[in-house]
Amino acid sequence: MIAAREEILPALRAKLGxxxxxxxxxxxxxxxxxxxxxxxxxxxxxLFKELEARFQIATGIDTPGAFEILYHWxxxxxxxxxxxxxxxxxxxPEIESIATFCPAAEWIEREMxxxxxxxxxxxxxxxxxxxxxxxxxxxxxxxxxxxxDMT
Amino acid sequence: MPKKTIVPIGPYHPLQExxxxxxxxxxxxxxxxxxxxIGYNHRGIEKLSESKSFEQSVFLVERVCGICSTSHPIAxxxxxxxxxxxxxxxxALYIRSIIGEFERIHSHxxxxxxxxxxxxxxxxWMWVWRYRENVLDVMEHITGNRNHYAMMxxxxxxxxxFSDDIPGIxxxxxxxxxxLALFRDxxxxxxxxxxxxxxxxxxxxxxIIDYGAxxxxxxxxxxxxxxxxxxxxxxxxxxxxxVITAENGDVFDKTVVRILEMFESIAIIEQCLDKLKxxxxxxxxxxxxxKPGDGIGHYEAPRGEVFHYIRSDGTNRPVRHKVRAPSFMxxxxxxxxxxxxxxxxxxxxxxxxxxxxxxxxxxxxxDTDKGKPALHSPDLLRLSQEKTARLQRELGTExxxxxxxxxx
Lengths: 151, 408
Prior knowledge:
A: alpha/beta, Beta Polymerase, domain 2, two-stranded parallel ribbon, globular, B: alpha+beta, Cytochrome-c3 Hydrogenase, chain B, three-stranded antiparallel sheet, 15 helices, 10 strands
């Protein structure tokens, strides 16, 4: 358990080592880290189980170059939110599920799957969350080209 | 072998952003499994927000929820301010806290009234809602609306609170404190409420941590998290108040946490009102543009942490706007809370995390063998109320004593 804001970054560096590609401290309250998609399960496990951060939510973004996922972790004892960013291949967006050890992520991974079309491998219960069960396959409402599909 | 029955609860409830559809699997009286389906009222607010300017998106997220209609705007403007490094004048911070705490009081009173109704205490229901009206009147006086206050904007608030109004607001708070004290004593001492809610729908500390549950649901299980204290924002760092927690994680503790929290809210409002007398305006810094970047804003809504993420590309519109309501995390805990409990208690357990109620009033039990409704929502409500009446007869009590003669 981390009790002070100053300990967060050194602890992350010590645990994650050179899997961290980039560090950006936007303000004393907000830290952004970039890691590769294959390191997400390991990174999340360390944050959730060892550093005891609270999983707030994940944000999926459709950007021109790639799909991005941002995992937001709150350190409630030190007034800080750490966001782990990762980029996925545009053609084949897939990543390992973290819901296997972090039940809090189960629903949001289902949501990102159906709204953005990101595949979560080994998810315990992958089915539609918000959209209806007979929603056409391959139509992802939060993608940039969704409206183009409609016409 | 006992016959397995599925009790569908839902699917429609139009008020909150997450209408739930619960499929309660029961064996005899015991709940053995629960399926949760959401999405019946998905309105695509995140997608819509990408087509709005930053100022407009605040009005949009105000419509996410009718009850916590100022929690989403506060989190949203904080995310915009975080992305664009916008300064907020001190006076605006106090006004944000005042509006936010009034909202918490009216939301908790709404819950307390409905919890009373489900348990068969209609006196509690009527009286709590009568005092809730006073809170809504104050909001109407300050903002012009009983709900959907439209007070928040990036860089400050839209309206000031006038010094002339402060004595009147304080008088209403004094009356509210006396009324709340009566409810507190009635609930905490009543043996039937104990019998109906203690040890019912327990969530353990570890379950809260695993599911990332927030708000009173988490605090009733001994997890001391409150965004107002842990990540100080608005005026919460400038005033004196404490986080209410309890240890047992049952329905009783969730009730007690909510009731005691209302007293803290009143203390926060009173201190903020005093500060307004000395802290001068303006109440808005009028930011002209939002710099490119990521912004995160979170706020402790009555049901728990509201989370907003905004990505700005330097234009006047967000590239991405993520909204996470507290019920998204809390409703997922229902399954572990309701397993092994009796069907007469299911109503109050599913209501204990404070989701919206229209769903609970549309309950229906289907006999799986015959495929036709066996129990309707009034029946389930009746089951719950009858259990209370039976306990009252056994214990020889008449329910909470409420005498409001002196205040009405």
